Structures are given as structure tokens and as C-alpha cells.
């Protein structure tokens, strides 16, 4: 069982677009809209317990002992003491041991849509928690965010290695909090850079829920085929399986940043989407269906040769390319005939990329190019050629393989 301080700071994956990650200090009162603070307090279960009507409200945190802390939050800036009240409320939040206080401060500092996960995992003896439940929750949440990010790049039943770099880049500014007991986790997705991700994941979760219900009611999988347009994919079904496995049920909710409003076409107060162990067969079947159905893609790839291998001095060989253009994957493997292999080897030795036509195969995650043809070196300017040559010389293993023809 893991233990974390109640007031543990949230972890920044990368700095926010503002230039610095949130450092735990409350924002300045003049940067806070009282209406946004009030909405966040209400969202996180704080209770309004009086206050002068039209001037300010008194708010206390949820749970036992909530009366020990109270905030006076003005309803607007019409009164001279509004900034003073806001400053005192923000300072009290930063000193509060209530976990939701930290989440409220994050949402104020960087307007963010909040994605929440709950796992109803059975407790161990004496209410204990298995030590790896938190890792399971974090892993499932990471997979789900990646699936949402992939769906903002393209619609596909299975992505494999495609669009991974762009998806990873879109998650750089996400903040995540602690996952006490492996039962609850919150991610803060900045509106400025991540709202398309939050919207797509919101839509995909509802589409997945509807497709599961259709499968359980009729036995048909057609709803999963149409759900691809909403962002459902093998990657999302895999994330849901990871989230639900070992639990009595799980939920996912998306709450919109009050400062940015509700995205067009989305519900203002959407209920969490619930999944149960009874959904696992449909999710696994859908994932396998997506894997089988996703077609290969015709491409024209430009890339640098980073590895060459064949069993003898002549004949066909396998080449690995680092992709520069033509496909949203980092690397591909290609089997080439003797002449094409020779061309690729010469290009490798002089530091030139090659261009090749073929089909990017879904089997293996879109990491293999089949039917390769028209392998030709690509001319680049001197600066780029010098850079490629330097990279080549730094990888002596590849250089030796190219020279020996192995």
C-alpha cells in the first residue's frame, strides 16, 4: 500500500505554454475571475454556507471536518474589498490540506479541461490497497490520453506506430495529480493546447459506451465500425480494458474549464461514462476487429538508412529507414532486392536519404513497408548532408553493416 501526503503537489510533465510550469504558488488575485473560482469550488464538492447575498459567499470543503476551513469568495469585482477577499481565499487554498484545493489552484493558474478516472477496485484485508493499483490506473489513463491524441490527428481503427510523435507532443503540457490508493486520478489538459484532445476523448468515450450497449443487446459489432468516426480505436479499447480489468467498475469524466466555456456540441454537465467487467468481452472483440480490418496504406517515404542486413554478400536484404517524410511513423523496415539494396547502401555511405514507394502494412503496427519499388537517392543541401553524415559517423555499427553488406 502506498501513502502520499494529502497536499502533494501535482506533477508537471513539461512546462506549460506560459513558459513555466505551475510552481504551487497561488495565482495573483487580479488574474482570477471570482465566477470561475466559484464554479471550481462547486465542481469539487465545496459547500456554500451563507454569506452576504450579492457580495460574497462562504465556502467550506467537502468531507468531515470541512468546517475547519472556510473561504470568503466575492461574487464579482464591484466592491473595494474584492481583491483582498480573493487574495485571502487563494492563500487559504494553497495552505489547505484538502486534496481538491490543489486541483482548484491548478485550474486557476492554467485554464484546463479536467479528465477524471475512477476505479472501483476491491479492497484488501483491513481496507488495504495492492501496491501496484496506482501504476495500473496511471498506465490506463496514459493509454487513454494517447488514444485521444491520436484521434485528433486522423480517424483510424488502429494506429500502430502512426502519429505517435505528434500524439506524444500534444501530451507534453498535461498535468497529473496523485492517484491515492489507485482509485482516482485527475489530468489537467490546458485549453490553449489540448482542448481538441479533451473534446475528442469525450466524444469517443460516449461512442464506445453506445457501441458496447449495442453489442450486448443485439450481438452485432456494426456500432464499433461507425464509432471510429468519433475517435474509437483499438488503442482506446485497449486503454478501457486496462482501466476496467481487476475492478468492479470504472468511470471516466471530462469537465470543461469554466474560464473557457463549453465546446460547441458538447454537454455542459455530462455524466461520467461508466464501464464494467461485463464490457470486457465486447471491448476485446472490438480491439481484435480493428486490428484485422485496418488496411495497408500506399505511401512514398523519404528516409535515411540507419541499418542494413542480409545473410550473404549478394541477394535480397533488409533495410531500416528513419522516416523524414511521407508517413507518420518514426521508422520502417523494408525488404529490398539486390539492386535496390545496393542503391540504399551507396546512399547510406555518402550520407543521402532515399525515396521509396510501397505499402505501409498494418500487421506489426505499420512498421513494415512491402512491395518496395523505385528506390532512389534524394539530393539535399550541403548543410543537411553534413548533418546526416555526422549522424552516420556516430553510429559505427550501422556504418560497418553497410560496408560489409551484411
Attribute tags:
single chain; 406 residues; alpha+beta; OB fold (Dihydrolipoamide Acetyltransferase, E2P); 3 domains; six-stranded antiparallel beta sheet; five-stranded mixed beta barrel; 14 strands; disordered N terminus
Number of helices: 12
Following the backbone from N to C, one meets helices and strands in this order, namely EHEEEHHEHHEEHHHEEHEEEHEEHH
Count of DSSP strands: 14
Structural class: alpha+beta
Calculate the mean pLDDT score and round it. 83
Largest sheet: 6 strands, antiparallel
Distance between the termini: 52 Å
Description:
Residues 1-30 are annotated as: Disordered. Residues 1-11 have a biased composition (Basic and acidic residues). The chain is an alpha+beta fold and 406 residues long. It folds into three domains: 11-98, no CATH class; 111-294, no CATH class; 297-404, Beta Barrel (OB fold (Dihydrolipoamide Acetyltransferase, E2P)), CATH 2.40.50. Helices cover 39% and strands 21% of the residues. It contains twelve helices and 14 strands. It has helices at 34-43, 82-95, 99-109, 133-153, 164-170, 191-218, 222-227, 234-244, 280-293, 338-350, 382-394, 396-404, and strands at residues 11-12, 47-48, 56-60, 71-74, 112-119, 175-176, 184-190, 250-255, 273-275, 297-309, 317-325, 331-336, 354-361, 368-377. The strands form three sheets. The protein has a six-stranded antiparallel β-sheet with strand order 1-6-7-5-8-9, with helices on both faces. A five-stranded mixed β-barrel has the order 10-11-12-14-13. The longest helix is centred in the middle third of the chain and has 28 residues, at 191-218. The radius of gyration is 26 Å and the shape is elongated. Mean pLDDT is 83; it is low at 1-21 and 395-406.
